[in-house]
Structures are given as structure tokens and as C-alpha cells.
């Protein structure tokens, strides 16, 4: 077999770029001189590439302007290039979740009920942008200097002082700023487990956590949880007393995702005690704690930690600005290992967003902003819940969380949320089907609905459409 000529290899290279959309119709094609420089080819080879593409009908010459991409009726097949496998996005980490995320990415979404975030207009973006501009003016070298692995000590001090309101004593020196709660949870698990270890979680739980556990090759045990009180302590105690060693337990005691539950203080104290007695590391995810509908902050598990057995993780992604991706971890006796893992994994987080957060969180404006956001979210949850009650089939139950952006909706048992997910995507509506919140099939008749966006006729129409799709299922 004769090797493919160089000019044809390059022509196929550019055909692939046109097929994938990297080069778009109407764009200028690289000049002969640029092709010679970038591909280290002769003038004759570069000219032959252009001729080949002209013959394929994808290139047209414009007088005194150069060559431009045009879109023919059909594109020829490239020579000696097998077609790529259509495996979708995120494949390889938890097949069920990957398939849902991949389908969502391919769809044209007009109403997104799958998001746990608020829309941009509810976040103090202008204030943060102003603080960033000021920081750049004050230090023009800011973007040219790497930050410390553990993040800004000033920010860590602010976070430690805020933790006092939740009755938790966190050491700023033993805190690490992370790229959101996802990295914080990754670091916590990597610090205290090895591949093959067993980790317990609430059931249902955040699908992102299931992805993390799958990526770390950890065995998962699910402990039932309710929207009323969170994790079932009796079931957990029986599990911890069993023959299988549970290395760690991950819980969200305040506004659990997806249930929206808040654990009673007595349960929190007992949970911390149980894990300490059985040598199970307790990892607390407090991502949503600041969104609770109360002026009095809820206590964290760390408040009852007397044995330095609780690793505390939190984030500003849902409360302040999803785009800055700032979280933190207070790992106590595992701090040195977490700091080492952070350095090995991603080094320090960028400084600009930390400086903006310091300037905002260090003032009373932050608390005023949170109070206003909580009131808005309370109204939006009530409006969304009422709409679901109006439009969904009889027998549908909706949780009444004490804060946050999420509603956990139980459909009558003969309905399938996965079927609803796929039908809704066809009309541009995205939801989170219950199956992705567990490794079991116990939640197929549940749906998580995000209500971070202000209620509007468009949202009302989308809820009515979901209700109609469910009625068609019945």
C-alpha cells in the first residue's frame, strides 16, 4: 500500500477541521505562506493542498483577498482517517450520569430546571467585577505571579471568622482554598482513602459526588435519608456495626442535595459521635448552608467534633458566583496531606477572584446580599411548588425545604423520571431525573427541579409542558 501523499494528508486535516466546525463557512483559509511556515512544507505542496480543497468544493478564491471556506452540498470522505467513535461527553465516569449529561449537552435547552445555581442577575457580579478591576490597578503584576498553594491567608481568616457563627472553630492556618467544593471533596477523599475502600453516602445524594467516588475507584454504600431529617442514623449505626469497614462517610447536613433536608441538632451530635466511635472519617459538605431561610445560621457538624474526625468542605459557587469556582477545605489533622495533594493536583487557585471576594465578604454588604437572596429564593420556591401542584398528576408530592434552590418531587410510582427527561429534552426543557442521584433504581419516580430563576410566564409554560408529558405517560 502506497503512503498517502503529504498534500493529501494536509487536505484531509483541513477537511476534518471543516467537518468539526473548527473552520466555519465564510472564514478566511490560512494563506500559502502561513501553511508553509506552520507545516514546514514547500510552496508546491501548499499550493497542491489548496487545489485539492478547491476540487472538493470547500475552498473558493476571492480576488486580492485570499481563499475562503465554503460549504458544499456534501463533504467528501477523508482518506485514511477512520471515523471517531460517538461516545458522548463525560463517558467513563459513572455510565448512568454520563449518559444524562451527554444527552443534555447535545440538546437545545430553552428552560433549564436541572441547574442548582441562580441566574447571573441574582449574583453581585458588578460589585465583584469592580473589585477585580481595582485589584488589577493596584497590582499590575498580579496575573504574572502564582499564588500560594493553600490560598490567601486573608480570605482564610475571613472564612474562619464566619464559621464562628455556625459554632465551628476552624483554623485559618489549616484551611486550603480550592476550585469549588468538587475539588475540596476530591482532596478529602484522596487524603483518607485508597482505591477499593468503602465510603458511605446519603441516599439519594448529589450525582457529582457519585462521579467523584467512581473516578477514585471507591466502593459506595448508600444509607437512606429523608427530606425531614436527613440521613437515617439507625440504618447508619447498623451499617457501621457490620463486618464491612467503612472508611469515610460524606453528608450534607444543611440543605442536602437533592432532598433539601436539614438535620436536627441532636442528630448532628449523634452522627459525629457514631463516626468517631467506629473510626469512620466524617466529611461534611456545607455548600448550601448560607442559603437557609433564617437569620440564625445553622450549626455544622464541625461544632460537635471533639476528636478532629470531621473534614469540613464548603463553597461559594451557589451563594456568591458560580464562575469564580472558589471553595475551601478544613481538614484538621489531615491538613498537611491535603495541602500536598492540592499542590500536586492543581497548585494554588488564582488570586484575582480571591481578592474580589475578600473585598466583598469583608464588609456588611455581603450579609445584606445574602438576606436579599434568601428572600428571593423563598418566593421562587413557593411559586414553583404551587405550579408543580397545579400541573403535575394527582399524587405528586413536593418537598418544602427551608432554603436553597432545589425541590425534590415525588411522582406517583408508575411514572418514570428518566422517560420524562428524554421527552422534555425534545421540547428544550432540562430536568434532573431521580436515577442519577443513586446507584440503585429506587428514585426513578423522583425528579429534582431547580428554582433559582425568577418565576415567569416562560417557566409557568415549561412546568405545564412537563405536566402534559407526564399525563401522556399515564
Automatic annotation (TrEMBL):
Molecular-function annotations in GO: DNA binding; DNA-binding transcription factor activity; histidinol-phosphate transaminase activity; pyridoxal phosphate binding
This protein's UniProt keywords: Aminotransferase, DNA-binding, Pyridoxal phosphate, Transcription, Transcription regulation, Transferase
Keyword presence, Transcription: yes
Its EC number(s): 2.6.1.9
UniProt-listed Gene3D superfamilies: Type I PLP-dependent aspartate aminotransferase-like (Major domain) (3.40.640.10), Winged helix-like DNA-binding domain superfamily/Winged helix DNA-binding domain (1.10.10.10)
EC category: transferase
Domain HTH gntR-type: from-to ranges: 4-72
Cross-referenced Pfam families: Aminotran_1_2 (PF00155), GntR (PF00392)
InterPro entries: Aminotransferase_I/II_large, HTH_trans_reg/aminotransferase, PyrdxlP-dep_Trfase, PyrdxlP-dep_Trfase_major, Tscrpt_reg_HTH_GntR, WH-like_DNA-bd_sf, WH_DNA-bd_sf
Family label: In the C-terminal section; belongs to the class-I pyridoxal-phosphate-dependent aminotransferase family.
Name of protein: Histidinol-phosphate aminotransferase
Classification lineage: Bacteria, Pseudomonadati, Pseudomonadota, Gammaproteobacteria, Pseudomonadales
Encoding gene (name): hisC_1
Amino acid at each position: 500500500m502506497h503512503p498517502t501523499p503529504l498534500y493529501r494528508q494536509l487536505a484531509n486535516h483541513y477537511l476534518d477541521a471543516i467537518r468539526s466546525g473548527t473552520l466555519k463557512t465564510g472564514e478566511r483559509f490560512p494563506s500559502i505562506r502561513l501553511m508553509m511556515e506552520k507545516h514546514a512544507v514547500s510552496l508546491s505542496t501548499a499550493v497542491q493542498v489548496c487545489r485539492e480543497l478547491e476540487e472538493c468544493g470547500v475552498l473558493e478564491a476571492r480576488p486580492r483577498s485570499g481563499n475562503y471556506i465554503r460549504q458544499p452540498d456534501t463533504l467528501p470522505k477523508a482518506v485514511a482517517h477512520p471515523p471517531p467513535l460517538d461516545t458522548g461527553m463525560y463517558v467513563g465516569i459513572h455510565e448512568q450520569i454520563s449518559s444524562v449529561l451527554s444527552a443534555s449537552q447535545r440538546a437545545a435547552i430553552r428552560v433549564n430546571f436541572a441547574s442548582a445555581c441562580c441566574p447571573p442577575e441574582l449574583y453581585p457580579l458588578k460589585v465583584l467585577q469592580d473589585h477585580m478591576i481595582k485589584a488589577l490597578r493596584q497590582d499590575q503584576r498580579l496575573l504574572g505571579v502564582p499564588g500560594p498553594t493553600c490560598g490567601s491567608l486573608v480570605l482564610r481568616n475571613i472564612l474562619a471568622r464566619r464559621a464562628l457563627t455556625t459554632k465551628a472553630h476552624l483554623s485559618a492556618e489549616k484551611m486550603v482554598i480550592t476550585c469549588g467544593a468538587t475539588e475540596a471533596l476530591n482532596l478529602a477523599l484522596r487524603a483518607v482513602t485508597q482505591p477499593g475502600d468503602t465510603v458511605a453516602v446519603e441516599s439519594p445524594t448529589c450525582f457529582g459526588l457519585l462521579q467523584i467516588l467512581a473516578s477514585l475507584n471507591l466502593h459506595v454504600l448508600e444509607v437512606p435519608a429523608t427530606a425531614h431529617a436527613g440521613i437515617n442514623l439507625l440504618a447508619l449505626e447498623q451499617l457501621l456495626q457490620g463486618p464491612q469497614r467503612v472508611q469515610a462517610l460524606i453528608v450534607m447536613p444543611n440543605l442536602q442535595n437533592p432532598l433539601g433536608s436539614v438535620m436536627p441538632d441532636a442528630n448532628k451530635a449523634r452522627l459525629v459521635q457514631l463516626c468517631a466511635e467506629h473510626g469512620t472519617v466524617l466529611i461534611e459538605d456545607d455548600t448550601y448552608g448560607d442559603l437557609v431561610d433564617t437569620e440564625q445560621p445553622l450549626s455544622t457538624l464541625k461544632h460537635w467534633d471533639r476528636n478532629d474526625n470531621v473534614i469540613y468542605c464548603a463553597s461559594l459557587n451557589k451563594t456568591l458566583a458560580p464562575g469564580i469556582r472558589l471553595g475551601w477545605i478544613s481538614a484538621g489533622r489531615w491538613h498537611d496531606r491535603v495541602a500536598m495533594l492540592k499542590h500536586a493536583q492543581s497548585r494554588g487557585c488564582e488570586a484575582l477572584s480571591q481578592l474580589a471576594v475578600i473585598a466583598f465578604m469583608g464588609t456588611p454588604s455581603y450579609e445584606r446580599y445574602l438576606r436579599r437572596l434568601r428572600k428571593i429564593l423563598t418566593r421562587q420556591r413557593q411559586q414553583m411548588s404551587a405550579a408543580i401542584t397545579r400541573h403535575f398528576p394527582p399524587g405528586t408530592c413536593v418537598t418544602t425545604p427551608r432554603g436553597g434552590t432545589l425541590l425534590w418531587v415525588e411522582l406517583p410510582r408508575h411514572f418514570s423520571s428518566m422517560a420524562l427527561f428524554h421527552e422534555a429534552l425534545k421540547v428544550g426543557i432540562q430536568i434532573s431525573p431521580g436515577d442519577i442521584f443513586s446507584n440503585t433504581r429506587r428514585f426513578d419516580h423522583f425528579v429534582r427541579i431547580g428554582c433559582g430563576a425568577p418565576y415567569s410566564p416562560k417557566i409557568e409554560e415549561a412546568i405545564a409542558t412537563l405536566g402534559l408529558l407526564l399525563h401522556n405517560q399515564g
